[in-house]
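User: quick one, fold this
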Amino acid sequence: MYRWHCSVTRVFTLAISLTLLLVALPILAAANGVFAAQQSTPLPTNTPRATAIPTNTPRALPTQVIPTATETPIPTATFTAAPTLTPSETPTLTPTEAVFLPTPTLYYPPDFEPRQDQPTAIPTAMPRLRSVDENGNPYEILNVLLLGNDGIVDPGQPFHTDTMIVVSINRNTNTVSMVSLPRDLFVFIPNWGMARLNLAWGYGESIGWTDGAWGMMRQTLLYNFGLETHYYAMVDFDGFETIIDRVGGVTIAVDCPIQDEMCQTNCDDGVAGNETYALQTIPVGVHQMDSELALWYARSRKNTIDFDRGRRQQQILRAIWAQSKTQGLITQLPQLYSEMTSVVQTNMPLEEIIPLIPLALNIQPNDIENHFFRKNIETIAWSPDGTTNVQLPEPNGGMLRLIENFLAPPTQNRLRLENARIEIFNGSSTVGWDMVAADRLVWEGFAPAAMGQFEQTDFADTVIYDFTGTSKGSSLNELIKLLNIKPENIIAQPEPNRTADFRIILGANYNSCVDRQWVAPE
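Assistant:
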């Protein structure tokens, strides 16, 4: 039995799997993306209860006060590919009026003052960011912070929240966005000064901050990102295997090969240094992962960096939701809530989650957007003392643009608005590449269909057929970029009676690892 040895690394997926079972029901139906539309046997239907579940009716959010600061900022394992899958319909619930609980109000204590004795200047507070529709009306948004802590308890040191993902639910557009926050981002923490973001929670808890660690974390996020968060959910070591194994494992489309050491023997005997390790590689393809392999995949960074782990963590979120839907867990929500809260620390009540169920059942794959920080784009590396390495916000507004894009609903995504009909065939001899490519495009706002194996399997190059009859278009340009298609392999064949706008046939040179901070395995 292989295992990822360091138990600290269990944190991230616990945060993802358990907390989303509590707070991000809208991801459920869309989580599987392409996979949910291709199961070899139909997915179970979640029949509505006799009393219809309330729909996602907006309610007013409270106005919050933002603090100010006074200084200026400083600058190969072998895996079996998943089978080809078959579509099934998503159930629709009867709309009724929802009753939502009051959204928690963010409180600033009267003695709030940034410290001025720091070697690093305190940045100015970020204005609170809000997303508005085309008429300038604010969207009704619910933001939930998912955290995983390292479980280290030291009276002299705060523990670390090394996983931080904000899930934003837009009740007006019935869409969901996620953003992963870098653990090493150097931010202003109230009553302390400049420090890594992953220390804010533990510090707030250690000093008995107003509203505890959660109050400190909310305030830190609002000050540095302009993000208002309403609820949180956090876990540590226990429960990851239970969740993944309960849903029967997860299906993951791996678009960049991952390579790292994995524990093989004596992994749980409690004797340090008694383990044996072997180099493991997950190649590009569709893989069934049990809890241990999923944890390894999510935590590995030998040939990637921490920023890319955020992408894989969100990918596992989607996969867990796909399996949750397949297993019909959404209909067991009240029982699940009681079970989950025994291992999850959260302030989000069941009464707030239940009205989100219709959204969970009807959301589409491209109604979910995933956002990530990128090194040297949204952040820059810096050392405050010559030895400690942290990340600073990129000075030209990269972080601000990312958060603004995160708050804008997927309905404003130009690729989603174009609604291009895309067929993807696998013209290579590598099984499952059509599903890998389709899953990759879903993340960009497309709604492609993975069509399976093409009649020929000897395509050397990836080819795209353009049936639209137009020489320009953002969908075509984006497909060419994401799939690395050569100019000579773009074939225009206008078809007025077309059933698809684009047909893509993947060749042996297909490379799904685009726009990723990743190094090829040795």
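User: anything notable?
Assistant: Residues 1-19, 21-118 have pLDDT under 50 and may be disordered.
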